[in-house]
Amino acid sequence: MNAAERPAERIHYRACNLCEAICGLEIRVRGSEILSIRGDHADPLSRGHICPKAVALKDIHQDPDRLRQPLRRTAAGWEEIGWDAALDYAAERLTAIAQAHGGNSVASYFGNPNVHNYGSMTHGTRALAPLKSRSRYSATSVDQLPHQLLAWWMYGHQLLVPIADIDHCEYFLVLGANPLASNGSLMTVPDFRARLKALQARGGRMVLLDPRRSETAEAADEHHFIRPGTDAAFLLGLLKTIFDEGLAAPGRLAQFADGLDEAAAAIRAFDLEALSAHCGIPVATIRRIAGEFAAAPRAAAYGRIGVSIQRWGTLSQWLIQLLNIVSGNLDREGGVLFPLPAVDLVDSPVSKPGHFAAWKSRVRGLPEFAGELPVAALAEEILTPGEGQVRALLTSAGNPVLSTPNGAQLDRALAGLEFMVSVDIYLNETTRHAHLILPPTAPLEHDHYDLIFHHFAVRNTARYSEPLFDKPAGALHDWEIFESLGARIAQRLEVKYQPAPRPEQIIDLGLRGGPYGAMRKHPQALSLARLRQQPGGIDLGPLQPSLPQRLQHGDKRIRCAPPEVLEELRRFAGEMRGAPAAGALSLIGRRHLRSNNSWMHNSARLVKGPLRHQLLMHPQDLACRGLKSGSTVRIRSRAGEVVVEVASSDEVMPGVVSLPHGWGHDRAGTRLGVAQAHAGASNNDLTDETYLDRLSGNAALNGVPVTVEAA
Ligand SMILES: Nc1nc2c(c(=O)[nH]1)N[C@H]1C(S)=C(S)[C@@H](COP(=O)(O)OP(=O)(O)OC[C@H]3O[C@@H](n4cnc5c(=O)[nH]c(N)nc54)[C@H](O)[C@@H]3O)O[C@H]1N2
Ligand SMILES: Nc1nc2c(c(=O)[nH]1)N[C@H]1C(S)=C(S)[C@@H](COP(=O)(O)OP(=O)(O)OC[C@H]3O[C@@H](n4cnc5c(=O)[nH]c(N)nc54)[C@H](O)[C@@H]3O)O[C@H]1N2
Ligand code: SF4
Ligand SMILES: [Mo]
To answer: Quick check: is 647 in a domain?
Structure first.
């Protein structure tokens, strides 16, 4: 090809959809060739920041292992089939099973990438809607369920989660989060490092509690080891000190906060020495941090996965809310604030505030939240015979065999399903059980508007990204698969199926009618057309106070003391034990910047370098078991066992071992070239489907009791 024939180089701007940080990307392309992927310095939120995963978008796009055509399982192996035949087959089987055994016999699991793919958010539930199944599961119940439940109880809407105003904060108290690896969560905070440095340059401090001295601990001003699962004791200690020493100052919040006195009375009844003995943080440290937090003019408390997916997840997250309220930092600049996204799912005609325990799971009686059941119950719902037994499953962008508790049990359960269909771009540990895999377009082949994470971002911005590449002939987007499947099922059931608008039409409506919308005569006059003019994104300013107006309870009041949580507090008091038995080991997880949950391990660029999936164990714990760093060990829990390499590390506190989740790629029958060479073992073969945050039903994946011995 001579120069004149070469396609021109062009620059494409888009949001990275791989994690919650939604960084702005600047991608240089020539024809179908990606020349470079960089951070967009003009992006009003991410300001040029990216991480190594963004560059791997190119690897996903080009990966020969990525599926591009529907696959049907046959006696002779996988067979490629056409889209019409595939969708007819799925609709036929799902409908037949629902007709024979009831709608609840058809379950679904929606995995994490659905929330990063707006067409799945607008159309995902439409696929099985005609079956009216209550057997709905998602990654929510291995993740942020406690936050959504509390947001609904306290503020009246499951998406009304207060976000730390890190750009103006002066005292940042963090429990169980590692934003330097994760890039933030329920806190969309691209470029955490620069934002933390700015906080410190203003004279502010960050204090972190984590059983591991993580990457973030190294950057914090203060790090304290805390025993897994005991954060509630530490937080109770802070609150008790604040109440006992008369440091509570909720200010204007007192005018619309109910239940503070009741909560204070319940908390003051605890004994500080006993709380300290339970979490392992000295009384003097608890009292000092309480005093500093209360005295800081702008302080924010924040807790994430380490605190969310543990035995006392909802209780701990409630105590974090209370801390922000009693110190007057909720709805205050530099404290925690409610974002106001351009497409607002809170104050909207399609708003779904939430509901809890309106029904329960069949076998164990676990409560639903907002129409979903805890995924810890999925395997038993498949394995236990009787009316309502799950016989068919649709998975979408999820790998629950590696991501949910007792994955090995789920693995066995999936093998016995009458029918399973997976909407996924890989043949992996979960989708290998499907009878049919429906692969949608790759991330760069569709448009994007981040419908979810603007609700959790540290600054209000908006951005619409066009597709970078045309979708290949015949290919379907995720939303088109859901829509076609729903229509085919409805046709077989002879029920009406109103076609839905396209995702971008829904966004246009949401933007126009939203808080900065053309329909509301806002000066920004946002619409899809307006966002298209500025593909690098539009700044809508820092987070602003919005209470009590934004509260979604009819009376515009905050409910500080939900009775269910006070009940849980009493259970906690009854179960507090003090220091664990000598020799006891507690398993926690770990995230790495170059890994993304259970996938992206098929990118050679990301997995290269030193091994990252060993078990980390403190040198003392190794020594007393006669184990050597680098040796192979067997980890056992009630649920199962795995064999892995152990690495000595004083990053973890004695009594704690750390293994990342999302590995275990050695299971037979997948089509993952690179991943299989970097197999690792699955943390979730050890986690326990009976070990839960009992209040919400969220899985307790951190703090699992284990033993370790030479293999
Ligand atoms: N022990 C332990 N377990 C954990 C956690 C932990 O900290 N410790 N964390 C939990 C958390 S927070 C989460 S969110 C879950 C995540 O667990 P899952 O919900 O299982 O999500 P992923 O592991 O991200 O799985 C991604 C799947 O989506 C597919 N995929 C990627 N992009 C697309 C797309 O655009 N369309 C479609 N259709 N498919 C796509 C991939 O091929 C892969 O199969 O894991 C949880 N499990
Ligand atoms: N690179 C990368 N980024 C990601 C992901 C990824 O897999 N890789 N996953 C994304 C997803 S789905 C999510 S939800 C977010 C999660 O975002 P984060 O919550 O920031 O992620 P983690 O790195 O799991 O941090 C949890 C921390 O809690 C600590 N911990 C464990 N148990 C306890 C405990 O009982 N108490 C306390 N105080 N700490 C504890 C762990 O040691 C760990 O450092 O990350 C997102 N970003
Ligand atoms: S931090 Fe990395 S993976 Fe997350 S949005 Fe930014 S570039 Fe993408
Ligand atoms: Mo997550």
So the answer is: yes
Residue 23 CB–ligand 3 contact under 6 Å: yes
Task: Note whether 220 and 312 are same-domain residues.
Answer: yes
Distance of CA 542 to the CA centre of its chain: 24
CATH of the domain at 590: 2.40.40.20
pLDDT, tens digit, 9 for 90 and up, residues 208-226: 999 999 999 999 999 999 9
| Residue pair 237/276 in contact by the 8 Å Cβ criterion | yes
Query: 128 and 150 in one domain?
Result: no
Closest alpha carbon to 683 in 640, 620, 628: 640
Return the structure tokens found at 458.
């540290």
- Total structural domains within the chain: 4
Nearest-angstrom CA–CA distance, 5 and 47: 36
* Whether residue 226 sits in one domain with residue 123: no
Report, as an integer, the average pLDDT of 680-691.
98
Residue nearest to atom 35 of ligand 2 (CA): 228
Do 484 and 398 belong together in one domain? yes
Residues 326 and 349 in one domain: no
Q: 183 and 329: one domain?
A: yes
* 22 vs 169: CA distance, rounded Å: 22
C-alpha–C-alpha distance, residues 305 and 244, integer Å: 30
Check pocket membership of 97 for ligand 3, CB cut-off 6 A: no
The C-alpha angle 277, 304, 269, rounded to 5 degrees, equals 35
Ligand 4 centroid – CA 598 distance (Å): 11
pTM of the model: 0.98
Cβ atoms of 127 and 482 closer than 8 Å: yes
How close is the Cα of 589 to the center of ligand 2, in Å? 7
Q: Whose Cα sits closest to atom 45 in ligand 2?
A: 182
Domain boundary pick from 471, 503, 535: 503
Assess whether 85 and 170 both reside in one domain. no
Helices in 12-56 by DSSP H: which ranges?
A: 52-55
Alpha helix positions (H), 272-423? 272-279, 283-295, 305-308, 313-326, 378-383, 400-403, 407-415
Judged by DSSP in three states, 506 sits in helix
Domain contains 38: yes
C-alpha torsion 690→693→698→703, nearest 10? -70
Distances (CA, A) of 257 to 117, 322, 535, 601: 36, 11, 41, 47
Phi-psi domain of 616 (left: phi exceeds 0; alpha: psi -120 through 50; beta: other): beta
Residue 4, pLDDT > 70, answer no
**Residues 640-675 pLDDT 10s:** 999 999 999 999 999 999 999 999 999 999 999 999
The answer to whether residues 80 and 150 belong to one domain is no
Task: Give the confidence band of 287 by pLDDT, cuts at 50, 70, 90.
Answer: very high
CATH of the domain at 496: 3.40.50.740
Mapped onto helix, strand or coil, the DSSP state of residue 554 is coil
Domain residues for the domain of 58 are 3-62
pLDDT at 320 over 70: yes
The β-bridge partners of 633 are 644, 710
Name the domain boundary from 542, 571, 600: 571
Residue 515 lies in a domain: no
- What pLDDT, on a 0 to 100 scale, did the predictor assign at position 5? 80
Continuous H helices in 471-558? 478-493, 503-513, 528-532
pLDDT at residue 526 tops 80: yes
SS3 at position 478:
helix
Residue 624 lies in a domain: yes
- CATH number, position 316: 3.40.228.10
Under 8 Å between Cβ of 578 and 274: yes
| Strand 257-258, strand 558-559: pairing | parallel
Expressed in angstroms and rounded, the spacing between residue 397 Cα and the centre of ligand 1 is 7
The residue nearest atom 6 of ligand 3, judged by CA position, is 23
Instruction: Decide the pairing of beta strands 704-710 and 632-636.
Output: antiparallel
Residue 1 has pLDDT above 60, yes or no: no
CA of 183 to the centre of ligand 2 (A): 10
